[in-house]
Write a structure and sequence with these properties.
Layout lengths: L19 E4 L3 H7 L5 E2 L5 E2 L4 E4 L1 H18 L3 H11 L13 H23 L3 H11 L2 H11 L9 E6 L6 E5 L4 E6 L2 E6 L5 H5 L2 H17 L5 H14 L7 E4 L2 E4 L9 H4 L4 H14 L6
Antiparallel strand pairs: 1-4, 2-3, 5-8, 6-7, 7-8, 9-10
Bound molecules: zinc ion.
Length: 297
């Protein structure tokens, strides 16, 4: 396992030079949000500022200038950022390629944080069971594709449904789920939820009116009690839905690109064939919300 400390998080190549450490959450952001000293929840408590992964200095600075500085600039104006992501969420891109949209930049950033946290835990945890879980993510095919995608200039990501919510509650929060692989990052009033490598399957079910209903529900809970973790309610609902989608994401690698096959189908009656079982969804919601300690009336 020690050799992973000499392997670049971004490009998966051995680091021969003097290695640099990449902050998973940029220091400038931590400072601005004054969350440097906060701990993250997991098997062990860690300061956000300590979470770093090995990287080539060139890969490190490339990611920083290509994505991180743009994310930090976008976060300067949360109102515009919220509206930009909302306006882009209607599209269900069939083609996946280099893309300069706000959603793509945020997706790359969240995807890097998600994988970075597991990479960091893999090389630093003493808990064997947790190490095995981290290993399955870091050595998984999706992460291999994410890195390939980055090398091909498509962003450090695979097609992943991105959602944004706005609350009055201004606490900062970071939640990662192993299954279904997701990350929630709440920065002040904005909450981002990314369904890691779901091939846009979640977006295919949760969009338009159903998404507005979820936003309305989150808004209602947030307004009736500002202490209520309404952002986690959003994550719970999205994760429950995703866990009930009777289809698995599928990606294939061809030439210099990765193709998202998740939305294609051979069945004649996809609406019926891929419909979500209401009872199963109800059970999944109850389980996840219980895990988050959320009680609804
Ligand atoms: Zn590298």
């Amino acid at each position: 396992m020690d050799d992973l400390r000499r392997v670049c998080f971004f490009c998966n190549k051995v680091i021969e030079e003097k290695k640099t450490l990449e902050h998973i959450i940029p220091n400038s952001l931590l400072g601005k949000l004054t969350i440097k000293e906060e701990t993250i929840t997991g098997r062990k408590k860690t300061q956000y500022s300590r979470i770093k992964v090995p990287a080539h200095s060139s890969c490190n600075s490339e990611f920083g200038s290509e994505y991180e500085s743009r994310v930090l600039a976008l976060l300067e104006d949360v109102e515009s950022l919220y509206e930009a992501i909302k306006s882009e969420e209607l599209g269900l891109p069939l083609m996946y390629g280099p893309d300069q949209s706000v959603s793509s930049i945020i997706t790359t950033w969240l995807s890097k944080i998600y994988y970075g946290l597991f990479y960091y835990d893999l090389i630093s945890t003493q808990d064997q069971e947790w190490k095995d879980i981290c290993l399955s993510i870091v050595k998984g095919r999706n992460f291999e594709f994410v890195r390939t995608s980055y090398k091909n200039g498509y962003g450090f990501q695979l097609p992943s449904s991105l959602y944004v919510f706005k609350t009055k509650n201004t606490n900062t929060d970071l939640v990662t789920l192993v299954e279904p692989s997701s990350i929630l990052l709440k920065i002040g009033t904005l909450t981002f939820i990314l369904c890691i490598c779901d091939g846009y399957l979640t977006k295919n079910y949760l969009n338009g009116e159903s998404l507005e209903r979820l936003r309305e529900c989150v808004r209602h809970e947030d307004e009736s009690n500002v202490e209520f973790p309404s952002h986690k309610l959003a994550l719970g609902e999205i994760a429950a839905l995703r866990s009930c989608i009777p289809k698995t994401p599928k990606f294939i690698s061809s030439d210099n690109q990765i193709i998202n096959m998740s939305l294609s189908t051979m069945v004649a009656n996809p609406e019926e064939y891929y419909s979500i079982d209401k009872n199963e969804l109800f059970k999944a919601r109850v389980d996840i919300l219980r895990e988050f300690n959320i009680k609804l009336d």
